[in-house]
Amino acid sequence: xSPSTSQxxxxxxxxxxxxxxxxxxxxxxxxxxxxxxVPVLKENxxxxxxxxxxxxxxIRLDDxxxxxxxxxxxxxxxxxxxxxxxxxxxxxxxVFSSSEWGQYSHIHLPQYLKDVTRIDxxxxxxxxxxxxxxxxxxxxxxxxxxxxxxxNLKAGETIYISSAAGTLGQLAGQLSKRKGLRVIGSAGTxxxxxxxxxxxxFDAAFNYKTQDKRQALTEAVxxxxxxxYYDLIGDVTVEIALDLxxxxxxxxxxxxxxxHQNARPHVPTNMINILYKQLRYExxxxxDRHEFFPQFLQEIGPLVADGSIKYTDTVxxxxxxxxxxxxxxxxxxxxxxxxxxxxxxx
Length: 346
Ligand SMILES: NC(=O)c1ccc[n+]([C@@H]2O[C@H](COP(=O)([O-])OP(=O)(O)OC[C@H]3O[C@@H](n4cnc5c(N)ncnc54)[C@H](OP(=O)(O)O)[C@@H]3O)[C@@H](O)[C@H]2O)c1
Fold this sequence. Notes:
Elements lengths: L6 E9 L13 E9 L8 E9 L5 E3 L8 E14 L9 E7 L3 E4 L2 H4 L3 E2 L19 H14 L6 E4 L5 H12 L3 E6 L2 H10 L4 E4 L5 H9 L4 E6 L5 H8 E9 L3 H4 L11 H5 L3 E4 L9 H13 L7 E5 L4 H11 L5 E5 L4
Parallel strand pairs: 9-10, 9-12, 10-11, 12-13, 13-14, 15-16
Antiparallel strand pairs: 1-2, 1-5, 3-5, 3-7, 3-16, 4-5, 5-6, 6-8
Helix pairs in contact: 2-3, 5-6
Bound molecules: NADP nicotinamide-adenine-dinucleotide phosphate.
NADP nicotinamide-adenine-dinucleotide phosphate binds next to helix 2, helix 3, helix 7 and helix 10.
């Protein structure tokens, strides 16, 4: 697009229908290309060209109604600012933002504008840009911040992390090891289990799809008992964790992977453990924690750059139309850790 043109051809991926009672699949997405006017910006607004989308298990839908039968999807992306009415994000700057799944996005709603972060000055050129979607992006920040804010980690304790080979799980495990905890993880393939044990230094790990979860977790926890369950899935596993908990243990409710696959969130039937063992069951959301992001980058950035913190990172180089399929594959377990879709040159 040249600055003088007032229209762009914009390919978007929309939700064609809401998955009801089934995991999302390719039929739920639709690719649409149309010529659109470049918006006339109001104060604080920006218009961006999206470069590389972060695939998040959780996606936000804008305006899906019975009348439209379609919805725009909002996900995280690294983008270049093409037009700006916001001094913090001048034309040409690189931002991390909540962007609609498409080539261009008009960022105007206050809830999305407040999330925009300028990243030109914080990018470490020795690292691939995709790390700012993953271990140094919202996922990594969520792991670090949730453990700091509600984890109260103590050396010698035992933590169990579900979806441990995912973006949050990988960092949560390594941060817990660095604080001297005994770390147990679960994942859905033997290769991921081996990765947790051999590459990330987990003390124990099991395949939740092929092993009996209660037996595997009970054996991994052993006589020491469980102190923390870092719950990324929100399914029945929490009941096993509650049974294995030591007095004053904590359940950190951070993710809902089972729900993203359209399973109903599980309500534990053994909540009585909370009373008898004086447990804490606490939720966390990243949405109001933006102000702590610089501190996170300062602390974790150098550890990622010097290899002390490990991560896996896949970049799918493709057109916008790959977003839906990659999202489906992410939920299905195809990737280990962060997957990004790069739709334009950086
Ligand atoms: N609270 C917050 O503010 C916040 C912020 C960011 C992310 N989150 C949430 O944290 C969770 C983890 O995020 P992430 O980015 O690190 O994703 P992730 O763990 O990389 O998610 C993808 C993986 O989830 C696993 N999975 C899918 N369905 C599952 C199920 N029913 N049971 C167990 N594992 C399942 C698959 O691995 P396997 O091969 O192991 O099955 C897949 O590879 C998500 O729910 C995300 O929305 C919360």
